Amino acid sequence: MSNPLDLIERAKKGDKRALGRLLTLLEEISAENAWVLERLSSESGRAHVIGITGMPGSGKSTLISRLIRAFRDKGYKVAVITIDPTSPISSGSIMGDRVRMQEHATDAGVFIRSVTNRGILGGVSLAALAMIEAFDVMGYDKIIVETVGVGQSETDIMNVADTIVVLTMPGAGDDVQALKAGVFEIGDIYVVNKSDRPDAVRTYEYMLFVAEKEALGRGGSWKPLVIKTSAALGLGIRELAEAIERHLSYVRESGEKERRLLARRAHLMKLVAVRALLGALEEVMREEGESVSKVAKDMRGFYDEAMRIVKLTGKRVS
Amino acid sequence: MSNPLDLIERAKKGDKRALGRLLTLLEEISAENAWVLERLSSESGRAHVIGITGMPGSGKSTLISRLIRAFRDKGYKVAVITIDPTSPISSGSIMGDRVRMQEHATDAGVFIRSVTNRGILGGVSLAALAMIEAFDVMGYDKIIVETVGVGQSETDIMNVADTIVVLTMPGAGDDVQALKAGVFEIGDIYVVNKSDRPDAVRTYEYMLFVAEKEALGRGGSWKPLVIKTSAALGLGIRELAEAIERHLSYVRESGEKERRLLARRAHLMKLVAVRALLGALEEVMREEGESVSKVAKDMRGFYDEAMRIVKLTGKRVS
Q1: Closest Cα of chain A to B179: distance in Å?
Q2: Which of residues 205-244 of B touch A (CB under 8 A)?
Q3: pTM of the model
Q4: Which of A33, A39, A87, A291 would you mutate first to test chain B, the one with the most B CBs within 10 A?
Q5: Does B305 touch chain A (CB under 8 A)?
């Protein structure tokens, strides 16, 4: 393994291999390599972090691929972090997605990296947050974080992006129940993809209604935008890129960007803490396995047993 | 609120409203109501817990609806727990899914309940595990836990089902990379749904290969089964129900069922512990907000700061 400082220097000069190895190192933040992230963070904070979420099938990867091109045309360097959820059925579609973006693989100004779950709660988010700092230092102007928008650890990271783009499509969003359930609450920009489909108008109008409602409910002066696209046909991409730029201006001027940067880093620290706590819990659970199994037989006193485990874990880390 | 003992008695007599209220109570296990779960668990352990996972679009809900009927025809009472992930784009499809199963809503021998994320890591699994105990006591023979198979907390619960059914469909599973990534490792039974589609043969053969490979890799004498279905057309459902019954015999005879019951309950205790630990962490993070924000500015000493937070959390709970 090369010296991390050396990797940083080479990555700064555009060496993608060096950057790749640096990212691998950042996948597992530990007491030993924490200084590498410290070093990177001392120079970061400039990039625009864009979270893009949408269910499988909503055309996310095609849209992102188009968006990469639009950003490249403006001269931006673009990094994409794809969150690969732990999935027993992680399918051809996810594999295919990455392929779809590979048209950009030979572009020196584009870097695509996927982060897979490492079996630890919050592990994905932690790795992604660390990688954001690295891409930032390496001069990537736009850092797109792609998630499927399902599951705690995946949506988690959305809360700390500078700009959140929620992808929907005809037939998916036009459900008043979805609104009631408060599921559309996080978007700064809503995209109705596949808007060439005949039922798109209804979804679009519905999303306008959602945006309107949210503008009222939220603090701040940003009113969520709704953009119609057809990623497959390449329609609406420029409008989307412009909407994203407009939101960037907003978060910059409102001081929201600085706030989100600090929130992102605070969240990174929290995830390091979560990992340490859950690691200690695992150890205690193993050591107390016999006692736990005994209680599991009829569950008598299970709550006290859980609290005893908590106490032992607390002692271990304090 | 009625007396929980009263709810249990009424639920045992088939009062669905009482059972619903009991489940609501179990959604939030606390020191105060832990005795209710203890009480239930003292009588549970008989039911067959079936985890069914598959990506959105794989036809899960239609398949489950068919399966409910097949089980009902055999005289079984059936409960379904639908895990609703926190999703910013939790879509019409998920809402629609529940509707699809509603044909069984008036059947006294069927109970469908969805569990939504409450913003706590592992919260969904905890609620679902508690509900399993209740359904068990109320005489539900088959307890189907449906997840979208994405995200830590959702796949989590799969590890503690008696029988795990993984749903795939043509075009999704026939990717050798998916196998390499080890994503097909958990199924006891693989279902190739939508097998009326022309490309289904390839997927079926691929899944046979997966099953073969897994039979070699795993301990135990169970060789994963591969079943072709078309839930929409109602094909292969009886075969699937029979495969599930065959697996039940296997886990019973091998002692695996008893082991999975204990693992399930140990996991429940662990999740109670996780919740307590993370709750304390949240508190500490809030109290130390100023210090954390300061460190977040340039991240100098962020790892030590995280460890300091861990120590404070440990002290709080020990």
Answers
A1: 10
A2: none
A3: 0.86
A4: A87
A5: yes
Please identify among residues 125-154 of chain B the ones whose CB lies closer than 8 Å to any CB of chain A. 133, 148-154
Q: How far apart are CA B250 and CA B163, in angstroms?
A: 10
Query: Looking at CA atoms only, how far is residue A219 from chain B in angstroms?
Result: 19
Phi-psi sector, A182: left (phi>0), alpha (psi -120 to 50), beta:
left
Band (A278; pLDDT cuts 50, 70, 90): very high
User: Which amino acid, one-letter code, is at A280?
Assistant: A
Q: Do B295 and A149 touch (CB under 8 A)?
A: no
Q: 3-class secondary structure for chain B?
A: CCCHHHHHHHHHCCCHHHHHHHHHHHCCCCCCCHHHHHHHHCCCCCCEEEEEECCCCCCHHHHHHHHHHHHHHCCCCEEEEEEECCCCCCCHHHHHHHHHHHHHCCCCCEEEEEEECCCCCCHHHHHHHHHHHHHHHCCCCEEEEEECCCCHHHHHHHHHCCEEEEEECCCCCCCHHHHHCCCCCCCCEEEECCCCCCCHHHHHHHHHHHHHHHHHHCCCCCCCEEEECECCCCECHHHHHHHHHHHHHHHHHCCHHHHHHHHHHHHHHHHHHHHHHHHHHHHHHHHCHHHHHHHHHHCCCHHHHHHHHHHHHHHHHC
Asked whether the beta carbons of residue B89 and residue A149 sit closer than 8 angstroms, the reply is yes
Are the Cβ atoms of A150 and B155 closer than 8 angstroms? no
Distance between CA atoms of residues B10 and B16, nearest Å: 8
Residue A52: both structure tokens together: 């893009």
Per-residue pLDDT of B275-306, as tens digits, reads 999 999 999 999 999 999 999 999 999 999 99
* Residue carrying structure tokens 């992680």: A90
Closest CA–CA distance from residue B226 to any residue of chain A (Å): 14
From A165, which residue of chain B is nearest by alpha-carbon distance? B88
Nearest to A157 by CA among A143, A167, A138: A143
Fold of A43-264: Rossmann fold (3.40.50)
- Which residues in chain B have Cβ-Cβ distances shorter than 8 Å to A178? 90-92, 95
CATH 3.40.50.300 domain residues, chain B: 43-264
Q: What is the pLDDT of residues A135-164, one digit of tens each?
A: 999 999 999 998 865 555 555 666 789 999
Average pLDDT over chain B reads 85
Share of chain A above pLDDT 90, in %: 62
Interface list for B 166-195 with A (CB within 8 A): 166-168, 171-175, 177-178, 181, 183-187
Are the beta carbons of A121 and B117 separated by less than 8 Å? no
Neighbours of B28 (CB within 10 A): 15
Are A168 and A102 in contact, with CB atoms under 8 Å apart?
no
User: Do residue B95 and residue A175 have CB atoms under 8 angstroms apart?
Assistant: yes
Q: Is the CB of A301 less than 8 angstroms away from the CB of B38?
A: yes
The DSSP secondary-structure symbol of A162 reads S
The pLDDT tens digits for B24-80 are: 999 889 999 999 999 999 999 999 999 998 766 778 889 999 999 999 999 999 999
ipTM of the complex: 0.89
